[in-house]
């Protein structure tokens, strides 16, 4: 009888130990999940504050941009913020090489360049300044990206928090963004590959939030601007083709024809909000087909299909751009009508 009592007591203790262990395991899982959710929310909050600051703040920054294994190029960027995008004014100056200048004014971006004709295009921002990733409602990207806090450090003599924007599908790059603790401007943006090697880096060297905004606005208002490029929202050359595969989250944003100095180019723009690529079709075939060029984070792939030349340009890895190119297929006569 004593033996049976001891056995029952032993089994009871074992059961209690198992229940306690199971409780702690479940608690750890729930706590870990809760902590991850809290960190994700904090990262999203920082990113959304950054997106607002980039658009609405007045500031002047000097920054460098550098592709992997290339020399850095330095810039000055002046920005007059506004709640509405059409009211934003900005200027990008190239501080090395030819004296290039890009101005955003009245929802139009104008390119002044000494080595080629100046021109203007309809655009709400200067794409050569900050990359697409900073202009987002990041909550809408949660289904295709993870947002990870990486801690705090310093850059440009300012305190910053690091956030990684990591694609759930590894067919694109990731970003590590260094966000100012006070004004929430991005002070460094690293484009990284799957090995966490930096493919391209934008790094702010100094920031001046008290620059002469009135003087800058007067300069912008009194410039003479070049003619607006003819852009038609048609895509006749692209009507006969379609993409049989797109990376998850990508969708067609725009389709138009551009007449650029007697050359007709039909273009379709695709984006997931963070990365983008264009499919460009012209009637002039390239002398060599299936050419691939890598320029830092930008990949260019050229191929001839039928009697047309198709060029894909995007800030995506080579393998992804090549897969997109391999999935350009001719529409049947019925679907292309």
Automatic annotation (TrEMBL):
Signal found in the keyword field: yes
Pfam families on file: MucB_RseB, MucB_RseB_C
Domain MucB/RseB C-terminal: 240-328
Primary localisation category: periplasm
Segments passing through the bilayer: none
MucB/RseB N-terminal domain location: 43-210
Any one of the GO CC terms: outer membrane-bounded periplasmic space
Subcellular location: Periplasm
Keywords, sorted A to Z: Periplasm, Signal
Family: Belongs to the RseB family.
Protein name stated in the entry: Sigma-E factor regulatory protein RseB
Source species of the chain: Gilliamella apicola
